[in-house]
Amino acid sequence: MEEQRAIDGWLPITSSRDAKWWYSTFHNVTTMVGAGMLGLPYAMAELGWGPGVAVLVLSWIITLYTLWLMVEMHEMVPGRRFDRYNELAQYAFGEKLGLYIVVPQQLIVEVGVSIVYMVIGGKSLQMFHETVCLSCIKIKTSYFIMIYASVHFVLSHLPNFNSIIGVSLAAAVVSLSYYTIAWMASLHRGGQHDVQYGYKAKSTAGMVFNFFSALGDIAFAYGGHHAVLEIQATIPSTPEKPSKGPMWRGVVIAYIIVALCYFPFAIIGYWIFGNSVQDNILISLGKPAWLIALANMFVVVHVIGSYQISSMLVFDMIETVLLKKLHFKPSKTLRFIARNIYVVFTMIVAITFPFFSGLLSFFGGFAFAPTTYFLPCMMWLAIKKPGRFSLSWWTNWMCIVVGVLLMVLAPIGGLRQIIIQAKTYQFHY
């Protein structure tokens, strides 16, 4: 028992439980209001006005509801805290089944997010370089991804969630900054004379696949549930003052910020550029150069924080296996080696597959849809067992249906985009 407590006291998620309620706001904003937001106008262009606004609003409502379910289930059993997503799933579905259902999904989410942020961080650095130095020699994207990754060889050795609160705060602040720059610059630019709002694809098949891809983009933008229990685990809790109170307060503020960011950003971006908008709206803006360069540096700072949050969950999994299964002793050397290997792995994959929009769509559907849209509902039904055909029963089943459709359809569109982009891509260029 003492050995178990010592291990829990060393692992990233459970080593510190003195977080304030506003920590959850910073972490949730950093996790959610991120790189996925840059692709929302592009998703609107693939969906069209009516379906685009409907999917944005519906996703906001569904994901806020499923996040509430997660917060409530964290301490659903008296005297016990489900500090990790897989622990809650094991309680809901059984020890083995819960592990087999959730751990692969969580790993796909967290590793996928890390790879996407590597791509975005490197490409944003490249855009900054090319914007401020027009006469400079072009440098390969892969080198910028390596430069971005170098930061994580240092930051990845911060021990736990609470130790990265400064990074998370900075990331949350700059995310609001570049979002403001993007939509205000779009408004200043004004509507284009030749703007078109029809679907970009000319064939029916192209329109359908793009529609599927856009669903994945939006699912990615709303993904953050994979970290919610781990964030809540850092908040102190007593029977008189359970952690769900301060956690929910932080979540509500975070979701208000999400709404203020996503809706005007997606709508204004699509209104200004129509179906000619790029998968990263900063590329479409282009001018003024100094403002776009600043926005790209803000993106870099933000994805540094987002990478750290998603990676901290992977570090917790890796170190749990090393300590509890393979019986290594806790040490700085072990942590140094394990975490550096992970950073190198995500960097190499990002260099190999630097396809921003395709990766968003694929991971948004295949990974984020389960952990965000329907697994929380399935766990709630398994644990709470609401009455059949009750309001809770219907609500959860509707979310499950929507989530499963997202999981099936979005990766099809995302994979098609990756294949199309890969045709003209030179390896490690």
Kindly report the average pLDDT value.
86
Which residues sit in consecutive blocks of at least 5 with pLDDT less than 50? none
Helicity, in percent? over 70%
Largest sheet properties: none
Query: Percent of residues in beta strands?
Result: under 5%
- Look at the helices and sheets and give the structural class: mainly alpha
Distance between the termini: 52 Å
Would you kindly provide a written description of the structure presented here, covering whatever features stand out?
By secondary structure, this protein is an all-alpha fold. It has 17 helices and no strands. It has helices spanning 2-8, 21-32, 35-38, 40-47, 49-73, 85-93, 95-132, 141-155, 165-189, 204-221, 228-232, 244-273, 281-285, 289-325, 332-352, 356-384, 391-423. α8 packs across α14 and α10 (204-221) packs across α17. The chain is globular. The termini are far apart.
Reconstruct the topology from this structure.
Elements: H1 2-8, H2 21-32, H3 35-38, H4 40-47, H5 49-73, H6 85-93, H7 95-132, H8 141-155, H9 165-189, H10 204-221, H11 228-232, H12 244-273, H13 281-285, H14 289-325, H15 332-352, H16 356-384, H17 391-423
